[in-house]
């Protein structure tokens, strides 16, 4: 393994870890420690994830591309921006990073949770599945079009988009398989039971592939 690849997978691990921590810890802080309503907690969660994601993309964008999300990596593979072996490594370390983020979130609030990992029984079903298609679709389409436009504001736009969609989708926009897996392992309000999580991941794959098809249609006759 070369030094560059090592740097890239470390960046993906850390970015995925801190993204999950922002997602889970903010909900624990507001619902358990502050005893806020879920409505206030979701708003705090959206702000937290948006701010942290902006910082993480700025920190690691030049190192690994700041994917932190297996469906982003898959789309970059389809675009031939990354090789197959590297994509597999990225996805593996994203998942491990996310699970580590869950454990660290529980550790920070160990007075509220007596274990580092716990399988969730939080039900998320029915109409929220469609929300995952919508949320993942807009995320992936935005990323592809921002890269195509060589935007210098990707971190800000993606961060604000994710924060906004957390408040605008029925599923509260997971839009990320590694985050979904990580949230299967928390018994906090952020959790999702594994059977629903697997359906979420399937919907995320559908949303990302639809976004890729639309992106290709939009630029099918563009001059590069």
What percent of residues are in strands?
under 5%
| Average of pLDDT | 95
- In the CATH hierarchy, the third-tier topology is known as Glycerol uptake facilitator protein
> CATH homologous superfamily - what is it?
Glycerol uptake facilitator protein
Query: Stretches where pLDDT falls below 50 for ≥5 residues?
Result: none
Helix and strand element order? HHHHHHHH
> How would you classify the helix and strand content by structural class?
mainly alpha
Radius of gyration: 17 Å
Return the CATH class.
Mainly Alpha
Structural account:
Helix content is 71%, strand content 0%. The chain has 224 residues and is an all-alpha fold. It has a single domain (3-218), classed as Up-down Bundle (Glycerol uptake facilitator protein), CATH 1.20.1080.10. It is globular and about 55 Å long.
Short recap of the structure:
The chain is mostly helical and 224 residues long.
Key features of this structure:
224 residues, mainly alpha, Glycerol uptake facilitator protein
How are the elements arranged and paired?
Layout: H1 3-33, H2 38-64, H3 70-78, H4 84-108, H5 128-148, H6 154-166, H7 177-183, H8 194-218
């Amino acid at each position: 393994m070369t030094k560059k690849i090592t740097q890239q997978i470390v960046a993906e691990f850390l970015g995925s870890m801190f993204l999950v921590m922002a997602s889970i810890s903010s909900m624990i802080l507001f619902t358990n420690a502050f005893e806020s309503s879920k409505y206030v907690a979701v708003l705090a969660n959206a702000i937290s994830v948006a701010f942290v994601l902006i910082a993480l993309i700025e920190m690691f964008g030049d190192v690994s591309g700041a994917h932190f999300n297996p469906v982003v990596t898959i789309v970059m593979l389809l675009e031939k921006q990354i090789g197959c072996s590297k994509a597999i490594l990225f996805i593996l370390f994203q998942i491990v990073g996310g699970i580590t983020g869950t454990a660290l979130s529980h550790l920070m609030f160990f007075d509220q949770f007596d274990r580092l990992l716990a399988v969730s029984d939080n039900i998320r079903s029915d109409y929220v599945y469609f929300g995952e298609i919508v949320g993942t679709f807009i995320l992936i389409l935005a990323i592809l079009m921002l890269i195509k436009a060589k935007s210098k504001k990707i971190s800000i736009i993606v961060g604000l988009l994710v924060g906004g969609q957390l408040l605008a989708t029925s599923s509260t926009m997971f839009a990320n398989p590694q985050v979904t897996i990580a949230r299967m392992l928390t018994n906090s309000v952020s959790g999702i039971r594994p059977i629903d999580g697997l359906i979420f991941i399937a919907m995320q794959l559908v949303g990302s592939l639809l976004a890729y098809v639309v992106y290709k249609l939009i630029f099918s006759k563009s001059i590069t």
